[in-house]
């Protein structure tokens, strides 16, 4: 046994835990929403651990693509056989946790069934359709996906090419893919698993195109699982990540579906072909808004996992001997290591708390929509799009920083970083390409700026800062006295300035060029304005959450929240220095604030990541193991390699042996 292990755990990590200045359980409960939530997490975890059906035969990294899809399908069927173990109404909490423990990050053939097919049925069907389809989907007598993106178009939905042409003589729609670029491409679970899909197609009736609309479509025979006549589909091949999912392609050849296959909660086509428009033209995009809003928690969870792995590993890894003869130190003691890892932990917290906010806002929207009120839609569209973009981008960069912080072992799949990255970085693209989504936020901000300039502004709270008259210079005197209100005021200043800078640029360009060119020529600045708007929201949400925390937890968390804010300010100091809003000495003060926060977090870092309550089963990382015994675990993990099944593999006989023999004979 290693000299670093005592009572089963690594001695360094045990020492770290003894240093905790707060109660880890209390912190976990605060992070996750209370004691009852924590208790339920533990019950779900115990259940998953005790069920042999959920075990992987070997770590999934060693499985082939076919084995991954097969293993994932086996597990998701077992998992959904047992949904009585969780509160089905709490997808955001219990549902996501259960799935994460059982399925990991490889995704699976029913991902889209649960994330988009079911929510689309819930959100877009009329009562009759709901009664027909929802029970089948919940019971899993059908498996569905969401087929919107095509080979030629993902972003620009108005140019989707799949057509759904209404034929009043038979009261059917004819689905057709007129070109190669009309092929649906990407939908999860479409390749080999789903037998139904929500297909988004251009609706034609009475000779007119009414734009993209959702239809429920049977793709495969219910018994044989063979494609229906007129339907061609398959798997799109391996991807950067989520290879347990059979993302697919789909083409239609004049495939007929009944009129009632069009989801008719908002838009309708009557039997004679008369079209009835929805109350808001974007109501049909509701499922995307839903997924963007739940993605935030998922991304936060991935970044939190990466930060946990990096922190625990940094506590057990010793390298370098600053005082020769005193022994090597834990790499977590290097300020550079802290600077690399702790901001990622801080971001993960910021994102998680924002995820709770957007969840609540989305629930409000759902409630309002039941009363036909669409007022909240633009705000939620802007906020969910903005959060999705900033959070997924920072998460991807943060995971990579965590990987780098673990040196060579971070590059091994044993660390889980490649899998976490491959899974999370997809979020930069799916549900709307990040830059495109930032430009959606910008449309919202431009309107707010316009109202402010006209002096007619009655802005929503989220962009109220745009119409404020702020200070000309920062009120920061010393970092010790830098209050939450001052921090927010400074960020508001920069966000407001960027919003007006982009707005003025746009307006000026509009005087000289066509509106679309003006928009394009201003789009980098507009996207920057959106980023600042979202960062401001994240900082505000985080600081306010911590301000309301119980004193014992606030004492610790205040340093994490301030690190998040100071890191943003110091890494964009140019924006704060512009026009003398801040002086260089104030920036120096904020940088010192960063270093102070790092030093405050260092002694409690392991306990802070423990508070996220990841079990080893969820982390799936040899480097992030709770007991800290990474070296033993790495050696053991490598034994799973197929190459280790025999001492000598055929490549020796075939290639290396003859090569060396030949070379020896010539010496
Ligand atoms: C358990 C863990 C869960 C998470 C993990 C999930 C893993 C699953 C993996 C993958 C799933 C991925 C599934 C998919 O990717 S499905 C496909 C998603 N596709 C997209 O997101 C497409 C992106 N494109 C769009 O959303 C739109 O086309 C657009 C870019 C917004 C442009 O739309 P359009 O051209 O129609 O509109 P305009 O630009 O002209 O704008 C007109 C006005 O409408 C407003 N608008 C646009 N969208 C919405 C909306 N959704 N809600 C409300 N309002 C909207 C827009 O802002 C304009 O307003 P304005 O007032 O300025 O005129
Ligand atoms: C892992 C994964 C899973 C997916 N699952 C599904 C699924 O289940 N169902 C489904 O229907 N789809 C799915 N998709 C597709 C996904 O939603 C699209 O890929 C995404 O919306 C981006 O669209 P695109 O591929 O057309 O990108 P493009 O729009 O071609 O983007 C390419 C580049 O062009 C830029 N660009 C495009 N338009 C503009 C503009 N107006 N202004 C400025 N820049 C612009 C983008 O910013 C980007 O840099 C999935 C994708 C991935 C990666």
Based on the model shown, name its key terms.
binds flavin-adenine dinucleotide, Butyryl-CoA Dehydrogenase, subunit A, domain 2, binds ligand LLCWR77L, globular, six-stranded mixed sheet, 667 residues, three-stranded antiparallel sheet, 9% strand, alpha+beta
Characterise this structure:
The protein is 54% helix and 9% strand. It has 667 residues and is of the alpha+beta class. It has a domain at 142-278: Butyryl-CoA Dehydrogenase, subunit A, domain 2 (Beta Barrel). Strands 3, 4, 5, 7, 8 and 11 form a six-stranded mixed β-sheet that branches. Strands 6-10-9 form a three-stranded antiparallel β-sheet, with no helix packed on it. A two-stranded antiparallel sheet has the order 1-2. Helix 10 runs antiparallel to helix 12 (417-425), helix 10 (377-405) packs across helix 13 and helix 16 (551-571) packs across helix 18 (584-601). The protein is globular. The two termini are 45 Å apart. The structure holds ligand LLCWR77L and flavin-adenine dinucleotide (FAD).
């Amino acid at each position: 046994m290693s000299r670093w292990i005592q009572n089963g755990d690594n001695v360094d990590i045990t020492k770290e835990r003894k240093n905790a200045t707060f109660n880890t359980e209390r912190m976990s409960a605060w992070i996750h929403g209370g004691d009852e939530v924590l208790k339920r997490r533990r019950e779900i975890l115990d259940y998953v651990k005790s069920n042999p059906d959920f075990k992987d035969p070997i770590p999934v990294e060693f499985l082939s693509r076919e084995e991954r899809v097969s293993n994932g399908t086996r597990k998701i069927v077992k998992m959904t056989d047992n949904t009585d173990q969780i509160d089905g109404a709490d997808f955001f909490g219990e549902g996501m946790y259960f799935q994460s423990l059982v399925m990991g990050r490889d995704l699976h053939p029913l991902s889209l069934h649960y994330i988009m097919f079911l929510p689309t049925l819930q959100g877009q069907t009329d009562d009759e359709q709901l009664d027909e389809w929802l029970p089948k989907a919940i019971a899993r007598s059908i498996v569905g996906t969401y087929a919107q993106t095509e080979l030629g178009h993902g972003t620009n939905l108005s140019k989707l090419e799949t057509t759904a042409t209404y034929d009043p003589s038979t009261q059917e729609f004819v689905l057709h893919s007129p070109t190669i670029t009309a092929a649906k491409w990407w939908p999860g679970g479409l390749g080999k698993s789903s037998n139904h899909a929500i297909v988004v197609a251009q609706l034609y009736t009475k000779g007119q195109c009414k734009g993209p609309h959702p239809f429920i479509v049977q793709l495969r025979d219910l018994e044989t699982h063979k494609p229906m006549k007129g339907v061609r589909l398959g798997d799109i091949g391996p991807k950067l990540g989520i290879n347990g999912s059979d993302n697919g392609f789909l083409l239609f050849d004049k495939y007929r579906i009944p009129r009632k296959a069009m989801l008719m909660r908002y838009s309708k086509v009557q039997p004679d072909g008369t079209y009835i428009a929805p109350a808001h033209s974007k109501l049909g995009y509701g499922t995307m808004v839903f997924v963007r809003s739940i993605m935030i928690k998922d991304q936060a969870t991935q970044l939190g996992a990466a930060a946990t792995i990096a922190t625990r590993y940094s506590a057990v890894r010793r390298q370098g001997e600053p005082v020769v003869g005193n022994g090597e130190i834990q790499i977590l003691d290097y300020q550079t290591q802290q600077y690399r890892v702790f901001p990622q932990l801080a971001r993960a917290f910021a994102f998680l708390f924002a995820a709770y906010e957007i969840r609540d806002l989305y629930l409000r929207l759902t409630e309002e929509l039941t009363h036909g009120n669409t007022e909240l839609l633009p705000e939620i569209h802007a906020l969910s799009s903005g959060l999705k973009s900033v959070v997924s981008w920072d998460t991807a960069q943060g995971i990579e920083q965590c990987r780098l912080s673990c040196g060579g072992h971070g590059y091994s799949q044993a660390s889980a970083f490649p899998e976490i990255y491959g899974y999370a970085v997809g979020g930069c693209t799916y549900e709307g390409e990040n830059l495109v989504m930032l430009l959606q936020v910008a449309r919202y901000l431009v309107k707010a700026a316009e109202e402010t300039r006209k002096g007619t502004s009655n802005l929503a709270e989220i962009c109220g800062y745009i119409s404020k008259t702020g200070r000309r210079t920062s009120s920061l005197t010393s970092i010790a006295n830098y209050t939450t209100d001052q921090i927010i005021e400074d960020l508001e200043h920069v966000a407001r300035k960027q919003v007006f800078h982009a707005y003025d640029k746009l307006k000026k360009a509009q005087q000289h060029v066509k509106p679309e060119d003006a928009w394009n020529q201003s789009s980098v600045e507009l996207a920057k304005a959106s980023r600042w708007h979202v960062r401001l929201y994240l900082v505000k949400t985080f600081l306010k959450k911590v301000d309301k925390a119980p004193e014992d937890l606030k004492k610790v968390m205040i340093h994490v929240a301030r690190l998040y804010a100071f890191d943003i300010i110091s890494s964009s100091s140019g924006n704060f220095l512009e026009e003398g809003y801040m002086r260089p000495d104030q920036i120096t003060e904020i940088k010192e604030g960063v270093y102070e926060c790092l030093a405050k977090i260092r002694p409690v870092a392991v306990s802070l990541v423990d508070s996220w309550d990841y079990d080893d089963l969820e982390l799936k990382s040899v480097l992030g193991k709770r007991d800290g015994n990474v070296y033993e675990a790495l050696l053991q993990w490598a034994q799973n390699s197929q190459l280790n099944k025999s001492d000598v593999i055929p490549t020796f006989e075939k290639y290396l042996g003859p090569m060396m023999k030949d070379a020896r004979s010539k010496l």
